Amino acid sequence: MMTSQLQKNLIVKCPTCSSSLKFKNENSSLEHEELDLRCTRCNSTYSFKNGYLNMLPPKIRKEICTRGILERKIKDKFHVNQLSKNEQDLVKGIIASKYMAKQYFKNVVHPTQAAWSARSYERFEDIFIVSYLDNLLKNKKVTFIDAGSGPGRYLILLGSKIGINSCKELKRNSETSTLYKYDKMYDKNLHNIIGIDYSEEMVSHSTRLLKKYGLGQYLYDRIFPITGIVQNFHLNQQLDRTYKVIVCTFQTLGNQENADLQVQLLESMKRLALPHGTIIVSVFNKKLFKDFGLKTFYGREVRQTVGEIINSKQDEDNSILRTKKGIYSKWFSKHDLEQLFKKAKISNYKIMDENSLQTIKGYEQYLKVEEQHKDIFPRAIVGLAEVS
After folding, report:
1. Suppose 114 and one of 83, 98, 119, 158 were both cysteines; which one would form an S-S bond, judging by CB atoms 3.0 to 4.6 Å apart?
2. Cβ pair 253, 263 in contact under 8 A
3. 355-358 long-range contacts, Cβ below 8 Å, gap at least 24?
């Protein structure tokens, strides 16, 4: 693929000023080089390499490099040129997720090998979202966006449904075959599958996994892994011709280190969904935080990946979990999530918990109905809003 072709498929705008982007050299090949693209308005630069875009704002990008970390320590000591509180918290989250992508996929995300405490919850999210898309795709052209895509869980799952020869191992497995099977309706009407994550390591690993699972041909044609910050992410208007489904699952909202960032993430999801789309958010119920969250959910495999818990008493009282590797996780009540939706000015929503979540049938090999009732409903809170 040449950069001239990639330019046509450039679905994003500058995160700094939301203006259009342009590759510096439109006649270069993508095979062996890193390509720069520049904002046509503010002149900020970004890059494309190894099959994915890096859309982190220059200021953030500088801070997370090794030299940037050292410079920031010196600046913090002298209180010079400090980042805003939100920018500092974003940088902390990015640095915390370094060096864990491969292990995170294996222990937390892999559809058949991850720890059951994580895998069962993700399986419910998977069938919830696929069931929603099944109805939507009957009469709509759809763009799917995963806000906090990690190592590419939904890029692989939905990619398997548009790629007839992809994910052969998962299509043969008795547990996963129904969910990961090729679907003509998805192939026809699911136009774009976009994953956004602020960890370049996660996005890089997702790109390698997409190639491993036979989905490399769709990279930057229909599947778009992107390093970026959801709170300042902007899409080209060409995608407004499709109906957008934007998801934020598996506690990603709670991984935002303060309430401002949580509200900003929801505000951005709403903006990205316009002029018509659906927002789906899934978080953990704080009712189970002390008994399940601190004791069961973060079992051996999960702790190996994200680090040992180092909570203070105040953290526990606020249903906040921290680990030695710097991972932050805030658990919510139904009321908490509703308040965040209201602050983000999201209307026409419904918040579901164990009293209102409905079982999803047709995927018993993947997740039994009784497992949904026993293992998922007590710890899941799901918000869904239609935006127009």
Report:
1. 119
2. no
3. 357/382
**Tokens 């069962």, residue?**
120
Q: Which of 210, 89, 226 is nearest to 148 (CA)?
A: 226
**Residue 37 structure tokens:** 């693209």
Cα 220 to Cα 222: distance, rounded to the nearest angstrom? 6
Own/partner contacts of 77-85, CB < 8 Å, gap of 24 or more, are: 83/59, 85/258, 85/260
Indicate the SS3 state at residue 151: coil
Q: How far apart are CA 97 and CA 205, in angstroms?
A: 12
Say yes or no to pLDDT of 80 above 50: no
- Selection from 30, 33, 21 nearest residue 3 by Cα: 30
pLDDT at 82 over 80: no
Q: φ, ψ for residue 39 (rounded to 5)?
A: -70, 135
pLDDT at 144 over 90: yes
Quote the mean pLDDT of the chain: 92
Nearest CA to 252 among 292, 282, 289? 282
The pLDDT confidence band at residue 356, using thresholds 50, 70 and 90, is very high
What are the structure tokens assigned to 55, written together?
A: 């859309």
What is the reported pTM?
0.95
Instruction: Examine the pLDDT at 81 and tell me if it is beyond 60.
Output: no
Q: Give the pair of three-digit tokens for residue 290.
A: 């002390």
Phi-psi label, residue 119: left if phi above 0, alpha if psi -120 to 50, beta otherwise: alpha
Q: For 140-171, give the DSSP string.
A: --EEEEEET-TTTHHHHHHHHHH-TTS-HHHH
- Alpha carbons 121 and 114: distance in angstroms, whole number: 11
Domains along the sequence of the chain with CATH: 1-49 (no CATH), 101-387 (3.40.50.150)
